[in-house]
């Protein structure tokens, strides 16, 4: 039935031919129909999003970032199709705090997950909810977060098994109808220890950072680590091919890693080998293929950026902020400083530290310099993880250069300061150099103000291993556990 006002119009135009009236009617119908179609069309403009996470992958151990031996062809292809970030950093170089910061947009002191295997405080919301409120279905496969109790971070569906990612993903989506735009998190546990027994690389040909001790066992473990890196890269290729068939061209794909690898001076450290991470983002038609940026970004910025990309609401007072304008190529400037924190991991890793880094300089504050720096690798020395430590100490007993490496690992000063332009491996501490005292003081003041604003109590969750006691080992750890 036509509306009354349309009836009167029809009477007025009686002389008009029936054919012309049909044209007018059809046009009117199309105009009316477009009113209902526009919202659906707009909804379809929301991109699907894939967030692919590696576990314990050092940024220099990817061919995109200059690695010459280890092969990562899928990441090379992704880099050629998208934007590569040369200065991306995590919030904390341990798994649970890093992933909690990712999913909340808040740094560890503010979200409550300061030590490893901790979770955000119950009152802290996950940013997954913002995507769901905007019509997204959000899925998680593999190691995406550390979950507390039945808390699953708000995902509509999660498949926690950390092996056979491709089979788990394809099996689910082949049998499940998904409505609306999707955001899919995929977490590969590789190259987290323990590293595979397989050797796709010749131990004699692997490259080692200049501050490692070159031993046979070190090279064998490095070859196993590289094998896992390439294994992760290969399966990611299968998964992304599957998503290419499943989703449309309007899909944003983001790859990154939660922190550096479990090697000395990497994971659980605030050197760049621990906190600097690969980050590559592809979005056809939106991001210039093959582009690179020097913009400094943090893991707390990733979810706010996805919220911005999807036109979802971004909560106020986050530590993270959107770098969408960087992705669009409109700017190479984003953050002036990067702050990172590490607090500990149970009884194995009790050596809290904080840092501030700009484009050239880094200041690290070690909160317990009168204790040994130590962690799982040198304590447990397990095959496929830290077994190479025996060979390091054997060589240190007869080689002064090796002894200096071991000493620097276990014993650290209260303040470390590095000129990253001239010393990218952070080997020469300039904290006591007279020429740098004004800059050290300035950055120390900035770091102090930031910690105060964060409510960072610099809390010790466990007792450190103070001098002059023995360095901890498996027996020491067990004794401490028995005390509690």
Automatic annotation (TrEMBL):
<feature type="domain" description="Sulfatase N-terminal">
    <location>
        <begin position="47"/>
        <end position="310"/>
    </location>
</feature>
<dbReference type="GO" id="GO:0016787">
    <property type="term" value="F:hydrolase activity"/>
</dbReference>
<protein>
    <submittedName>
        <fullName>Arylsulfatase</fullName>
    </submittedName>
</protein>
<dbReference type="InterPro" id="IPR052701">
    <property type="entry name" value="GAG_Ulvan_Degrading_Sulfatases"/>
</dbReference>
<keyword id="KW-0472">Membrane</keyword>
<dbReference type="InterPro" id="IPR017850">
    <property type="entry name" value="Alkaline_phosphatase_core_sf"/>
</dbReference>
<dbReference type="Pfam" id="PF00884">
    <property type="entry name" value="Sulfatase"/>
</dbReference>
<keyword id="KW-0812">Transmembrane</keyword>
<dbReference type="InterPro" id="IPR024607">
    <property type="entry name" value="Sulfatase_CS"/>
</dbReference>
<feature type="region of interest" description="Disordered">
    <location>
        <begin position="461"/>
        <end position="484"/>
    </location>
</feature>
<comment type="similarity">
    <text>Belongs to the sulfatase family.</text>
</comment>
<keyword id="KW-1133">Transmembrane helix</keyword>
<keyword id="KW-0378">Hydrolase</keyword>
<feature type="transmembrane region" description="Helical">
    <location>
        <begin position="20"/>
        <end position="39"/>
    </location>
</feature>
<dbReference type="InterPro" id="IPR000917">
    <property type="entry name" value="Sulfatase_N"/>
</dbReference>
